[in-house]
Fold this protein.
Amino acid sequence: MRIISLNEESRGMLLEQLLKRSPGNYGQYEDTVREIVERVRTEGDAALFEYTGRFDWEGIDASSIRVTEEEMQEAYGAVDPRLLDTIRRALVNIRAYHEKQKRYSWFDTTPDGTMLGQKVTPLQAAGVYVPGGKAVYPSSVLMNIVPARIAGVERIIMATPCSRQGRIDPAVLVAAKEAGVDEIYKMGGAQAVAAMAFGTESVPKVDKITGPGNIFVALAKKAVSGYVSIDSIAGPSEILVLADESANARYVAADLLSQAEHDEMASAILVTTSRTLAEQVSDEVDRLVKDLSRKEIIQKSLDNYGYVLVADTKEAALDTVNLIASEHLEIMTKNPFEDMMKVRNAGAIFLGENSSEPLGDYFAGPNHILPTNGTARFFSPVSVDDFVKKSSIIYYSREALEKVHEDIEYFAENERLTAHAGSIRVRFE
C-alpha cells in the first residue's frame, strides 16, 4: 500500500479522490437509469419483465416473479444446517439491539386543558433491496428486515436478483424467512427499485426502500426519492483504521483487506501517527493479499483507493478521521474509548483490536447498512426509526386558547397573514 505523509495538500487530494466514488459523480448512467425508472412507472409489469429478462432471467412473468412456498421449502432443504444455526444466533443479537431503538407515542397535558404529543406510526409497507451478482449477502437480508419488523411495518417485501435459471441463493431466502419477510420478488437493479416505488400489476407499492446496491440501484433510489422515502444513496464500501504504535500491524492489515474485497471501488485507509506501523501494515497487506480468493478485486481496490496516511500528531489524525467520515471506523490505539469521544463523523465505530469490522457485518447486532462517501456527517445507520413516521398532536381547550389568542393573532398579523389571525379571532368574537 502507498504511504503518504498527511498534510493539507495530501488531505485535499485524498478527499477529491474518494469523492470520485460518489454516486453523484456517475452522470453517464443517470439517463439510462431514468429511462428504466420511467418505463417501469408507466408500463408496469411489461417493462419490469423486459428488463429482468434482459439482465437476469428470461423466464420471468407474473406467475414466476414471486418466490413460492415450495421454493422456500427447497431453500431450507438446500442450506447448510450450520449456516441456518448461525443466522438464527445472529438474529438474536440483531433483534435485541434494534428492540432498544423502538420509539413510543407520548402525550403531555396541563391543568388548563392543553395536550401536546407525538404519535408514532409504523409505515404500512417497506421494500428492502438485497444485492446479488458478485457475492451473496444473507447478512444484508437480516439488517434490512429486522428493524422494519420491530417497527411494526405491516407488509415487508424483498427484491433481489435471481440467476439465469430463475433461482435465488438458498441462504438469502432462508435468511429472509427467518427475519420475517412477507413476500420476495425475483428482480434486481433499477427496475426493481422502480417497481417497489410505483407498484406494478405484480409488485405492490411501498412507502420506503432501504438497502445497498450497485450504482444503478443507488441512482434509481435517488430518482424515486420523493415518491417514496429511501434510507440513503449508498456508495462503495469503505473502512478507515485509526491506529498508533500500540496496534498490531497484522490485525490492521487484515481488517483493511476485509473491506477492499467488496469491489474494485472499495476504500481502505489507515491513519496513524507511527511511521513504523505504517511500513509494517503496508508489508503485511502485500503479504496477506496473495492468498486471498478475491485478490484481483482487492488489488484494484488498493491501487485506486487504498492509503496509509502518516500524521504528525494525534489531533491531525483525528481531524482527518472526522473529515473523511468513513462508513466503518476502527480505533486501535492505547485509549480507544477516549479517542472515540473525539470522533464526530463515522457510520459505525469499532473499539480495540478484537472488534474488527466483520463483527458488525454479521453478528454483533448493530445495523451494517451505513452511510458512505462522507455522508456520515449527517446520515445514520439504518434503524427502527427508518420504518416509522411521527405525527404531532395538538389539543387546546377554550380556556387554554383564551390565554394566548391575542399573541397568536399578533404574530400572524406581523407576518401579514390576516386569515391566520382571523382563524383564531373568530372564536372570541
About this structure: The mean pLDDT is 93. The longest helix spans residues 81-99. The two ends are 78 Å apart (CA to CA). The CA atoms of residues 102 and 196 lie 25 Å apart.
